[in-house]
Amino acid sequence: MLQQERLPPRTVALVTGGNSGIGKITARELAARGAHVFVACRSHESAEAALAEIRAAVPNAQIENIPLDLSDFLSVRACANDFLSRGLPLQILVNNAGIVPGHGSLSKSGFELAFGVNHLGHFLLTQLLLRPLRDSAPSRIVTVASDAHRGAPGFDWDALRKPTHSRTGFPEYSVSKLANILFSAELARRIDGSHVTTYALHPGVVATNVWRRVPPPIRGLMKLFMLSTERGAETTLHCATSDSAARESGLYYDRLQPTTPSALAQDTALATELWQRSEEWTRDASQSPLQP
Fold first, then answer.
1. pLDDT at 291
2. 232 or 81: which carries more pLDDT confidence?
3. Is 173 a catalytic residue?
4. Domains by residue range for the chain, with CATH
5. What is the pTM of this model?
6. Which DSSP state fits 102?
7. Shortest CA distance to 28 belongs to which of 3, 53, 46?
8. Which of 53, 69, 93, 264 could form a disulfide with 75 if both were Cys (CB 3.0 to 4.6 A apart)?
9. Which pLDDT score is estimated for 206?
10. Pairing relation of β-strands 92-95 and 139-144?
C-alpha cells in the first residue's frame, strides 16, 4: 500500500480501466483513503477479480463495477447513465484506460483504435459526467497521458477515421496521448472558475496491459525495463488527491511535478480544433450539446 491521506467524507471516484495495472492500484488507493470507488471496464470477470483483490487489501472498501467499452460510444453513454442514475456526487474522475493498438484496428464507433479509446471515449465520458463533477466541486479530472506524445507529428484527421496503419501501433498511440494533453488543457480553459480542475500526466513507462497487443517477444523484453504499477500510479494519485495539485489546473505532470509538454501539446489553436472535431464526432452518442 502507498502512503495514505484520508479524503473528505462522501468522496466518490470513477476510474476507467480500474481492473488492472495502474488503474487497479489507483482504485485501491482511493478506496483505502475512504473514497467510494467505481471501476469502469469492459470485462465483468476481470473487474470482479480486481474488486475481490482490492477488498482483500482494503477490508472496508466501498467499490463497485460499472461496464464500459471506451471503443463504443453507446457503451460510454450507458456507463454514464448508469452512474448518473445513482444520484451520487462525483469528486474524482480518472481517465486511466488506454491501449496500444494492433495493425488494422478500428474502434466499434469507427475510429482508429488508439484515438477512439484513449481520447474519444474519455472525451465523451467526461462530457457526460460534467454535471455531477460541477455540482460536487471542488472536483478533479485526471487523464493519464504519456511522454510518448512528444513523438506525435500532429493529427492526420482523415487517418483517424481509418484502421491503425502502423505495424507496432506506437505512432497512433503517440497521437492519442497528444490528444489527451490537449483535451485536458482545453477543458481547463473551458471550465475555468467552476472549481473543477484538470490534469494530464505521464505515469512513467509502466509494465501494464496497455502493451498487450505488442508481439510477445518484444513485449517481454520491454517490460524488463519498465516501472512497477505501484510506482506508475504515484503521479495519478498526486493529481487526484494532493493539496498542492488542488491549486493547479490544465497542466501536464511527470514524477509528481508539473512539466512542460511538447510544443504541439501547448498549441491552443490545435486544442480548439481537436475539441470541435471530437464534439462533432461524439455528438450523436451524447444526445446533448457538449459545452461545459
1. 39
2. 81
3. yes
4. 12-284 (3.40.50.720)
5. 0.90
6. P
7. 53
8. 69
9. 52
10. parallel
